[in-house]
Amino acid sequence: MKNLSYFLVSIFLVSCTSNTIFKEPKDLIPRDTMTLLLGDMMIASSAKFVKNKNEQKKVNYMAFIYDKYKIDSLRFQNSNLYYTSKIDLYEEMITDVKKNLEEKKIFTIK
Description:
This protein is mainly α.
């Protein structure tokens, strides 16, 4: 009986680890655009607690990002879910985002 319990628990654990890849949405944001979008979103989220030139803090800049790329939050969410299901591709995109942000940082320092 004890061996059966171990067997059932191990089957359960193995079945829980799935490699789900979602179907590509019809309005998928292209990879290069998504990389730029993620970079701008990182900047916008980090700028939330910095005072702007009108001395305002806690401004939500995400609406400006959505307007810039002419998308809505649902399209972003669907595209992001698809890309995160392909973890290797998403990791490459995040690496590209980091590289782009470092280049912007060096450019603004000079």
